[in-house]
Here is the input.
Amino acid sequence: MSFDNVYEALTGDGDARWAFGTGFADPLAGVDTTVPPDVDRADLAAYCLMLGDDALIMSHRLQEWCTNAPDLEEEVALANIGLDLLGQTRMLYARAGHADGTGRGEDDYAYFRAPEEFGNVRLVEPPRGDFGDLVARLLVFATWRLALLQRLIPSRDPVLAAIAAKGVKEVAYHRDHAAQWAVRLGDGTDESHRRTQAGLDRVWPLVEELFAPHEVEERLARSGVGVDPAALRAEFDAVLDQVLKAATLRRPDVPPAPGGRRGSHTEALAPLLAELQSVARAHPEATW
Here is the structure.
């Protein structure tokens, strides 16, 4: 967005919604939105909602660190990571509304669905925790999502390909940021090591679900549109092993928890959504 567009969004009389961090009404403006003719539109919409839900809920958890991070610089960094993910959410939700033919907008998907309608992985749901929890969760999430986005760049769906091409640059920074903190804390003091290891131990039961394919993911992977998450495991393990070794942290040996793509969520999701959706539901016709 140009400076002029930002200024107009802040001062003009149009329908720009700068409160969401953007000054444009259509997140997919300028992107080819043609759906490949042999692709099931319902599957494509469901897939975009899954990936968008992952980003939205993780973004919300990250914004909770504003005023809670160790220092101002880290608060800004985490806010920017959250905004990156929110931008991905907007484009994915817009694609879902176009693909399924309903024309639903990003606000409809974010604010007017019940918890059981969300298809995110459970990794993004647990409460904020301490900084060790944040570092562990962000490291796992960004490593997994970067591997996913890299494989979406050649997607036959032009919108997913465009989102992925932009997203890999953002998420590469997210992963690097989390890895640097993991090494700094894991190989730091006894207390920082203990807290980071504890965060990793709490996150690890939710790792296995990241690689368990949903039937929609399997169908779209076969058609060259989506990615089979099972194919991400080798890269994920290689990156985590390298970071954990440098951080003197151990890979947890804990049983996996059943997972969220099929609508089985943790008890933390409902109150998170109640907070996130409260203003929009109280004023459903409001515009910014």
